[in-house]
């Protein structure tokens, strides 16, 4: 069963509960993206926007800024490489170009995977990672008492600001939805991106990035467990929720509201903690999305056993 958050939304600025004031209409006076000069895929189309109401009031909204600022050092860029096997299922036919992260999020071709892993896993989990990154609400539909059934919209982008929040409807608007918006009272149905799916997508990218950093497919138990989680997601029935993965659940994932910076894919480290002198290692995607190093027991600087390469051979 799909869980749907249902909220009743009244688009009027309510001052009087009896009749309600006339709705305020506003004009979009500016919109900015987060793309760099050369263009960069995968960043939200609308980063911030300003509305001017007819009475001259300005309303400003932007991508939410949550969490704390943290300084990160680039340890090393991660470069593209292919392996003799598919690094996810270890089959011997890696024939498909694999973008890390996915193409829609600005990823580049970084390695090759087999077609089952490339198509079967990505299609189940990667769209939700983009939705999470964009602060989007998904499975959106509108309902009105005078219109039978529901009318679907692609996504809603959530942006907030000092005067509250706004929801931007992405894509073409069905005429019936426009009528509901004009009327002002309707039921809005949506759900948030599924953490189980977007965490599995982040785990896939972190794992492949770790293989590229190491230069080989590791044989340690952590890596075997990650591969098992990814394969059970890949092989789960279409349209059903993939099984939860232990490694995916404990992955740290961060997103930054700032413009892209640094290498497209890199290992970065937090500044050492004052008490333990420990650094936390993360995989950075152009400085806008960060996922923790996927093998918690073995930091990236330590030697990691190579798959199929025992000391005696
Ligand atoms: Zn594979």
Descriptors:
313 residues; alpha+beta; six-stranded antiparallel sheet; five-stranded antiparallel sheet; 5 helices; 30% strand; binds zinc ion
Characterise the protein shown here.
- With 313 residues, the protein is α+β, with helices and mostly antiparallel strands.
- The protein folds into two domains: 5-66 and 135-191, no CATH class; 72-132 and 195-292, no CATH class.
- Helix content is 21%, strand content 30%.
- Strand 15 (281-285) and strand 16 form a beta hairpin.
- Helix 1 packs across helix 3, helix 1 (115-133) packs across helix 4 and helix 3 crosses helix 4.
- The longest helix has 20 residues, at 195-214.
- It is globular, with a radius of gyration of 23 Å.
- Bound molecules: zinc ion (ZN).
